[in-house]
Design goal:
The protein has about 325 residues and is an alpha/beta fold. It has 2 domains: about 5-65 and about 290-319; about 75-280, von Willebrand factor, type A domain (Rossmann fold, 3-Layer(aba) Sandwich), CATH 3.40.50.410. The chain is built from 9 helices and 10 strands. It has helices at about 5-25, 40-60, 100-110, 135-145, 165-175, 205-210, 240-250, 265-275, 290-319, and strands spanning about 65-75, 80-85, 120-125, 125-135, 185-190, 210-220, 225, 235, 255, 280-290. The strands form 3 sheets. The chain has a 6-stranded mixed β-sheet with strand order 4-3-2-5-6-9, sandwiched between helices. Helix 2 (about 40-60) packs antiparallel against helix 9 (about 290-319). It starts with a helix and ends with a helix. About 30% of the residues are buried.
Length: about 325
């Protein structure tokens, strides 16, 4: 039961009013006694007063009964997506391109994360939070669907792949939301760490925050992204040992995708790992009697007021 102090005050006032009215009706010199009424009107008045008293006594108790039960699922594992948007993601060794394939499967995965806290970090030479943690799955899906590599600048400071910096930003983003729960990080990349922090230097931070990193490497062959000022080729390659170490040190997993057929099992496993921490519990749905009591109270007060008018009219006739 929930006690409402306002209803208790209202109840006391109404009880006092009922007692006062009832007391008045038994004063022959002031108003016609209710005993002078016909038996039907007398009992109608008595029942109305009783109903008013019952309603104003029960209303503050906020009485209710169980009308049904529902299964509720607490989705307790926030998901941090980290997507490589460096120039090499435009490679077509996994058609139509590494970026397009990754984005397509990400969109499908996010559709299955309805109700979860999901955030998106994009990174190349500099990482940044594209989408903060949110339950708004449609907005995240729309952002992914409209995203392209052309959205990211090709300025010199953005060239390269800063895996370590991205992991540091991801850990900080996670800590802002909450650090006291299991986390799932999905890292999608096709290269090596060649800028910023060394990922090996932040393994302890990731372990302390219980952040499991699942690494998806999308790479089949080295990719020529251009030539430097000396006309020397700039080729990107995948650092498999580094990515494997990131996964191992954080109790995550690693997969190097060389064809799209490997992506479906990976994302299915990822979603299963996320949903493994769901907490299910059955909650009761209550139907409260307040609305019925208010109706009875209103009707009873109308009847009581009507009877008072009758008593007053008889009094005026007999005066």
């Amino acid at each position: 039961m929930i006690y409402n102090p306002w209803w208790i005050c209202i109840s006391l006032v109404l009880i006092a009013l009922c007692i006062f009215l009832r007391y008045r009706n038994f004063k022959p010199k002031f108003i016609l006694p209710s005993t002078k009424l016909s038996p039907t009107k007398y009992w109608l008045t008595t029942i109305s007063v009783g109903m008013v008293l019952v309603c104003i006594i029960l209303l503050p108790l906020h009485l209710g009964f169980v009308s049904g039960k529902t299964l509720q699922i607490q989705k307790s594992t926030p998901v941090q997506i980290m997507l490589d948007v460096s120039l090499s993601m435009a490679a077509t060794d996994i058609p139509p391109s590494r970026f397009s394939v990754a984005k397509s499967y990400l969109v499908d995965a996010v559709h299955h994360l309805q109700g979860y806290d999901v955030s998106l970090i994009t990174f190349s030479g500099i990482p940044f939070i594209s989408l903060p943690f949110s339950h708004d799955t449609p907005a995240i899906v729309q952002s992914l669907q409209t995203m392209s590599l052309a959205d990211f600048p090709a300025a010199p400071e953005f060239l390269g792949t800063a895996l370590g910096d991205a992991l540091v930003l991801g850990a900080a983003n996670i800590h802002r939301l909450s650090a006291d729960q299991p986390w799932m990080v999905l890292l999608i990349t096709d290269g090596d760490n060649n800028k910023g922090y060394d990922p090996a230097d932040i393994f302890s931070l990731l372990q302390k925050q219980h952040i499991a990193v699942r690494v998806l490497a999308i790479w089949q062959t080295d990719y020529l992204i251009g030539y430097d000022q000396y006309q020397q080729p700039i080729v990107t390659s995948l650092n498999i040992p580094l990515l494997q170490t990131i996964a191992q040190q954080t109790s995550g997993t690693f997969l190097n995708v060389i064809n799209t057929g490997d992506l479906q099992p990976f994302f299915a496993s990822f979603l299963s790992a996320v949903k493994a921490n769901e907490i299910s519990h059955i909650s009761s749905q209550y139907r409260y009697l307040d609305e019925f009591l208010l109706i009875f109270l209103f009707i009873s007060l109308l009847v009581l007021g009507f009877m008072q008018v009758i008593i007053l009219s008889q009094y005026l006739k007999n005066k």
